[in-house]
Amino acid sequence: MTLLAVERIKLFSTRSPWWCVVVAVGLTVGFTALMSGFANEQGTVTVGFTQFSYQFGLMVLMVMAVLAVTTEYRFGTIRTTFQTAPNRAAVLTAKALLVAVLAGVVALAAAFLSFWVSDLLATNSDLSLSGADAWRNVAGTGLVAFLAAVLSVAVGILLRQSAAAVTVVLVWPLLVEGLVSLIPRIGQDIQSWMPFVAAHHFLFGGQPDSAEAAMMMGMSDVPYGPWAGIAYFGAISVGLFVVAVITASRRDA
């Protein structure tokens, strides 16, 4: 608990996490409101559609998670931290857990705000959180953000440079995973096993929904179910974090 308290003080003593929280919620809810307003005329707003812009907020939260680590490396405060608490695995785990919980809570709040805003604007649609799929659409964003933050902290630990780590966590889900599908013959099969594709499938998979079709950008069906997708994404995130902790424990701070 002491390590968690220390990491909480360090995290919230700077302005960047506060700005990231505001921007993440603002982008998510703002774009959802804009899209719901246009889609309301056609009466095509569904529960899945209300989460159309979750990726905007997710990217901001991943940047926040990266900066929580790389900023300490940049200013050298990580050395003082490791000298005070020699158990590096415990320190990094506390940091990842705190950032991941914050990311999950913010994403969850943005998801429900997006749903409520869409419900107000989409007067031609009947929106309700009835059924497991609807709850997975909305509440599942918190779990995705939690695991994505763990993955981002791992990237920050491994690269230690803010610019490099931020570039990786933004370019990979937004560009690389989409370009993989262009590889002849095997591109679609490889894309199905990309981590953020699996996370996205957890949120929207198995639903004949216009929002899902738009967000999947023509991706072929994946060979696993939604819950298997989040388990796969979680395994990659935790596995990469374990590798990062082992690496940090063996090298100089």
Write a brief caption for the model.
The protein is mostly helical and 253 residues long. Helices cover 76% and strands 0% of the residues. It is built from 11 helices and no strands.
Give structural notes.
- The protein is mostly helical.
- It has one domain (2-250).
- 76% of the residues lie in helices and 0% in strands.
- The longest helix has 34 residues, at 88-121.
The shape is globular
Q: What is the radius of gyration computed over CA atoms, rounded to a whole number of angstroms? A: 19 Å
Low-pLDDT windows of residues? 210-214
How many β-strands, per DSSP? Answer: 0
Percent of residues in helical segments? over 70%
**Global structural class:** mainly alpha
> If you average the pLDDT, what whole number results?
88
How many domains? The number is: 1
- Tell me the series of helices and strands, N- to C-terminal: HHHHHHHHHHH
- Distance from N terminus to C terminus (CA atoms, Å) equals 23 Å
What kind of oligomer do you see?
single chain
Strand content: under 5%
Determine the number of helices (DSSP H or I, runs of at least 4 residues).
11
Q: Main beta sheet, described?
A: none
Keywords: Membrane, Transmembrane, Transmembrane helix
Transmembrane segments: 18-40, 52-75, 96-118, 138-159, 166-186, 224-248
Protein name: ABC-2 type transport system permease protein
